[in-house]
């Protein structure tokens, strides 16, 4: 499998992003080939402050590395370090139908959430197609909301191959991330940056503990037995604890006679231990920025070689060379 995915550098990861996406990317890094990149060209439509975008891009790279993305297995790079992508994007844009882009829900969604309706936001699925096609990727792990863009990418690739009667592009498939465990936020609803109910992976432990202690709970009496299955506090605990600890906690719920404060303390302890190694690794990377620059530079060199080869194929086919 040739795996590729892009991560927008739009903020620090929260527990939902980790369990719902990042951990799954990392699990796929031992496939034949895994390319992961920081999608800074995509973020240009939302972050209009150069310093902020640069810092966010570095932070996102360090977060991924600290959480286990291993440059010996996966190629990690910054999207704009591969200028071939922008060139390929224009070639694809020249054949991508307006109707195809008009059917994409993400543009309307983003504009309805208050983002400025700029051209880059509308044509963003074409840039995403260039990202995918430039590396002959066949498997694209993405959240459910991104599957439409993979279909758009396939349509663009098919129409190019058929127009120039050559198999220039490999048709990719989406690998939908397992979202069965939607991570609940501190209010019990889905954890999300936009709801202000999130806890960051690299949040200082003291502040993480405070947020955990403030997680909303119901007001049933302590002695009442409770079903752990539908309880968001238990759901959070089970993300961090091993099977034996989960069973013990589930037993406590079923018996009753406990306070939610006890569960919160156990959750905070488990989350602290779970991310302890990543926090240490993050601090090491932070203290050694040259190492991060080196990893990203090496990754970009590998990615560029591949992208140049695919771009050349496309240029030959459409008469630019
Ligand atoms: P947010 O809702 O915080 O803006 P994003 O839309 O940036 O999160 O999500 C990035 C990735 O993280 C997506 O693949 C999404 O499926 C995953 N993700 C985000 N929040 C959760 C959650 N609460 N539970 C599981 N996965 C999540
Ligand atoms: N559009 C994706 C998102 O917003 C990020 C992304 C950019 C991406 N290029 C990609 C994902 C290519 C998969 C493949 O989350």
Provide an overview of this structure.
This protein is mainly alpha-helical and 321 residues long. The chain has 2 domains: 2-182 and 289-318, HUPs (Rossmann fold), CATH 3.40.50.620; 205-274, Tyrosyl-Transfer RNA Synthetase. Helices cover 55% and strands 7% of the residues. It has 15 helices and 5 strands. The protein has helices at residues 15-27, 40-43, 50-66, 84-93, 98-102, 105-112, 119-122, 124-133, 147-163, 205-213, 232-240, 243-255, 260-274, 276-286, 289-318, and strands at residues 2-7, 33-38, 75-78, 139-142, 173-176. It has a 3-stranded parallel β-sheet with strand order 1-2-3. A two-stranded parallel sheet has the order 4-5. Strand 4 (139-142), helix 9 and strand 5 form a beta-alpha-beta unit. Helix 4 (84-93) runs parallel beside helix 15, helix 8 (124-133) packs across helix 9 and helix 11 (232-240) runs parallel beside helix 13. The protein is elongated and about 75 Å long. It starts with a strand and ends with a helix. Adenosine-5'-diphosphate (ADP) is lined by residues 16-17, 19-21, 143, 177, 179, 182-183, 190-194.
């Amino acid at each position: 499998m040739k795996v590729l995915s892009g991560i927008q550098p739009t903020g620090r990861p929260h527990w939902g992003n980790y369990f719902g996406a990042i951990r799954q990317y990392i699990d796929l890094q031992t496939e034949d080939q895994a390319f992961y990149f920081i999608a800074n060209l995509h973020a240009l439509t939302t972050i209009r402050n150069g310093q902020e975008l640069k810092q966010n891009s570095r932070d996102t790279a360090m977060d991924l590395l600290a959480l286990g993305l291993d440059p010996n297995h996966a190629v990690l790079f910054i999207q704009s370090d591969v200028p071939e992508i922008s060139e390929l994007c224009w070639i694809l844009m020249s054949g991508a139908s307006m109707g195809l882009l008009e059917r994409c829900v993400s543009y309307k969604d983003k504009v309805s959430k208050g983002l400025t309706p700029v051209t880059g936001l509308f044509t963003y699925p074409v840039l995403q197609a260039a990202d995918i096609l430039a590396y002959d990727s066949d498997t694209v792990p993405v959240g459910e909301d991104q599957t439409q863009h993979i279909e758009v990418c396939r349509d663009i690739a098919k129409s190019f191959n058929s127009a120039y009667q050559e198999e220039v592009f490999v048709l990719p498939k989406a690998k939908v991330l397992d979202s069965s465990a939607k991570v609940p936020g501190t209010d019990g609803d889905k954890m999300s940056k936009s709801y202000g109910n999130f806890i960051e992976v690299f949040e200082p432990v003291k502040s993480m503990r405070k947020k955990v202690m403030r997680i909303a709970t119901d007001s049933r009496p302590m002695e009442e037995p409770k079903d752990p299955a539908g309880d968001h506090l238990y759901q959070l605990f089970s993300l961090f604890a091993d099977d034996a600890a989960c069973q013990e906690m589930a037993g406590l719920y079923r018996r009753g006679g406990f306070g939610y404060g006890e569960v919160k303390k156990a959750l905070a302890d488990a989350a602290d231990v779970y991310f302890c190694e990543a926090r240490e690794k993050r601090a090491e990377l932070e203290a050694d920025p040259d190492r991060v620059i080196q990893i990203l530079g090496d990754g970009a060199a590998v990615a560029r070689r591949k992208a140049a080869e695919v771009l050349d194929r496309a240029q030959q086919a459409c008469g630019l060379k």
